[in-house]
Write a structure and sequence with these properties.
66 residues, mainly alpha, 53% helix, 0% strand
Amino acid sequence: MKTIVINIEEGSNAKRILEAIRLLKGVENATIATDEELENISMLKALKAGRKTRKVSKEDVLNALK
């Protein structure tokens, strides 16, 4: 499974884009991510960066959380 994240401005376009994506062949699930889910993605990115070296700078961790 592959995951695609699309950042768009708030408004009615989000619902229309989501409806169009659901019509694509091969799409199993399409939802709007909650703030908690986006935070989890940021944490996973920070952890992945941390696995590459023995020490990770505070700046790298904070950048990954953005």
